[in-house]
Design a protein that fits this description.
alpha/beta; 7-stranded mixed β-sheet; about 20% strand
Amino acid sequence: MIEKTLLLIARAFSSVIFIVLKYVLRYRYGVIRKNLQRAFPEKAERERQRLMDHYYAHVADLFVEPFLFYLAPASVRKRLMTVEGFEVFNELYAHKKNVVILTSHYGNWEYLIDLPTRTDYCVTSGYSPVKSKWLNDFLIRIRSRFGANLIPKQQFYRGSLNLLRTKERLNMIVVIGDQRPAPGSRKYSLPFFGMETDVQIGAERIARTADAAVVMLESVKIGRFKYRYHTELLDVKANDPLAITTLYFAKLEKAIRHSPVEWLWSHDRWKGRSALGVTVN
């Protein structure tokens, strides 16, 4: 009964948010359209418009899902967030290996606040503080409710290394790796959807420096507000300093091409970059 009530309320709020985003605000319409044109120049305009419509519905769900997950009891959270391959964490923990999780803005990343209930690791992630104190405190309370530690993004690299070097507990550092680098820090780029794309390599540097295992964690939407998360252990032994990041972006692109709607197209990911061989009108 609780689950049905929560889902009914979530659907109602999401439907209202969808109408506001798509028809009232036309939320980041130009950015979304430009990104889809760049990523899928082979698709007809009608197909890209269909993707936009479905994307707005997905974003509306994303607005609601953190609150739904925060309010849901554990039994409901386990149905909203199903997992595959989490045995790898047990194996790494048994071998006393710290872990760096590489995830992305694909599917749902907010449900990862539940990781501390699914593993014995001490789970830490970064966050971007917001100016409003009450909103900042509220977001921290939501994201740390189940035991995750949060580090402000300006202190994340050094703070993560300090945690991975400690001997008291084994640590799991969660990194959303597909974000655009901050201005002035663009040193590395990789091809992504046929475009030279600036990338962050902080996760790879942290893992190599601390000799931590790297696990890619991907989420797939399997129903309204429901996601399946699966793991893949990535090899960090290659000498190429971009080996893990290159593999990560290749796998991410494959996932997005399989189900394009679920990536964060409203983020201006290629700001300041032009497509290789692709003309955007």
